[in-house]
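Worked example 3 (structure in, sequence out).
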């Protein structure tokens, strides 16, 4: 190891919601362990600093998306992006985490060396760091850019074309005709917010998405905050919302037609039969793709007010002044927003090597949805698709703390998940099952497999995970704990004794 290379017990990659939460837990539950946070960008916040499009907000309530150790105090449960960014920054500054962050350190390569039991982490700027445990909190989509399909005639368009992931600060759409391509959470956030200033906003979708309108403010949460201590009120609200989220998701699995009828009925009440039949009646079952939340019915209201419309059709080509549809209709546009989704990538797109051999992640098995078979001392955070991301990221961070504490207690420097003999006949499945949006289908072949038995499953169930990750012993019959350094010292001592 070169003398200028900094070494830490744990390196966290990413200073977003997950990374800051992980650092808070390490401070609290593994005191005395040295750590650093490597952040590729110049600021804290991750997603909530990167995305700057109008109206950006959470699509989960902040009582489950916030940290367990830091109550969410804003009256709004469905919060705007700047409020979430301020919350993350405060969570970092109040614990002094700023001094642990190395900004501008975009990880491109990590190499494990078994004899030294260390990861060497290399960044885009050529800097190198080493650590015993590497903890990836970098999310699962590319920061370089979103999914951008090729549309015929795109080069002919004379207006402004933007993707929400690279929103221009100086974009002026006041009084202009805006077409937003897409039907996901981003599109449904943009429509009512851009409609406030634009002449007309059209959401152009290939197919409809399920939409549910809920109040931005949680009345029960705000009542509890008024009559109970802040931490207790937060915990009770969090408990309530976790169980409500899980109940709703379970209903979509066991009673999909009843849930479908309920969702469509709520939309019909807001918009009427004609609009819902044409534009808000999906072909798939609820939660086969993400259920889009709109706070206080803002999307429905902008449609009723005539400031926005939805068109369900496919694009034939892009013209100089708009979009020509396969039906023959033309949508005139001064601004086109291509809200066409994300590009997923594994562990921030970095390359990983174990003793010189490149790790091919599709060939590995996922241990509890957070480690890789035969890859030592590497943990990653992958959140939920049917609940708040933070619920799982905090469980994983808690596991990391328990793991490093256990390794210290037993004198181990290496922890590696290994298949048992009884696992050799496992059936493999994609890491996220029963969920079919385009961004998942385009990328799941790049991720590790999950198996048909514990602990090789990625359950996407918080209550199951809480038992499997939090309550079950760290030492099981899958994780192997070793100390190559101690073995080398013992071997050298034996050699010396023999020579004597």
């Amino acid at each position: 190891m070169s003398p200028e290379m900094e070494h830490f017990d744990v390196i966290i990659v990413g200073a977003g919601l997950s990374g800051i939460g992980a650092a808070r837990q390490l401070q609290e539950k593994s005191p005395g362990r040295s750590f650093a946070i490597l952040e590729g960008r110049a600021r804290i916040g991750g997603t909530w600093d990167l995305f700057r499009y109008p109206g950006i907000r959470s699509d989960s309530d902040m009582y489950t998306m916030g940290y367990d150790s830091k109550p969410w105090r804003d009256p709004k449960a469905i919060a705007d992006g700047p409020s979430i960014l301020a919350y993350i920054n405060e969570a970092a500054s109040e614990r002094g985490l700023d001094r642990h962050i190395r900004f501008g350190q975009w990880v491109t390569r990590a190499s494990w060396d078994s004899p030294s039991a260390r990861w060497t982490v290399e960044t885009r700027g050529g800097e190198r760091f080493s650590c015993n445990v590497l903890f990836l909190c970098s999310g699962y989509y590319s920061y370089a850019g979103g999914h951008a399909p090729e549309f015929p005639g795109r080069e002919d368009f004379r207006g402004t074309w933007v993707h929400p992931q690279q929103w221009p600060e100086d974009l002026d759409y006041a009084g202009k005709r805006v077409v937003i391509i897409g039907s996901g959470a981003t599109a449904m956030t943009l429509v009512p917010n851009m409609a406030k200033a634009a002449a007309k906003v059209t959401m152009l979708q290939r197919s409809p998405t399920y939409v549910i309108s809920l109040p931005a403010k949680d009345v029960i949460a705000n009542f509890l905050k008024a009559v109970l201590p802040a931490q207790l009120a937060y915990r009770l609200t969090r408990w309530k919302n976790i169980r409500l989220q899980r109940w709703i998701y379970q209903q979509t699995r066991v009673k999909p037609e009843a849930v479908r009828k309920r969702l469509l009925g709520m939309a019909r009440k807001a918009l009427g039969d004609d609009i819902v039949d044409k534009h808000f009646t999906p072909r798939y079952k609820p939660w086969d793709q993400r259920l889009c939340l709109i706070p206080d019915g803002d999307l429905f209201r902008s449609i009723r007010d005539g400031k926005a419309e939805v068109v369900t059709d496919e694009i034939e080509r892009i013209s100089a002044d708009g979009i020509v549809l396969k039906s023959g209709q033309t949508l005139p546009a001064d601004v086109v927003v291509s809200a066409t989704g994300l590009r997923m990538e594994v562990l921030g797109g970095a390359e990983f090597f174990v003793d010189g051999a490149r790790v091919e992640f599709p060939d590995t098995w996922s241990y509890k949805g957070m480690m890789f078979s035969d890859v030592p001392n590497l943990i990653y955070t992958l959140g939920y698709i049917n609940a708040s991301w933070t619920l799982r990221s905090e469980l994983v961070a808690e596991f990391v703390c328990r793991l490093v504490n256990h390794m210290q207690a037993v004198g181990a420097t290496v922890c590696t998940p290994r298949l048992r003999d009884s696992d050799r006949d496992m059936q493999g499945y994609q890491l996220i099952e029963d969920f079919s949006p385009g961004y998942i289908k385009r990328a799941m072949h790049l991720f590790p497999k999950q198996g048909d038995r514990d602990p090789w499953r990625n359950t996407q169930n918080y209550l199951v995970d809480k038992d499997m990750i939090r309550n079950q012993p760290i030492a099981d019959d899958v994780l192997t704990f070793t100390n190559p350094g101690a073995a080398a010292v013992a071997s050298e001592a034996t050699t010396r004794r023999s020579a004597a």
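Notes: The domain at 6-144+343-489 is CATH 3.50.50.60 (FAD/NAD(P)-binding domain). Residues 488-500 have pLDDT under 50 and may be disordered.
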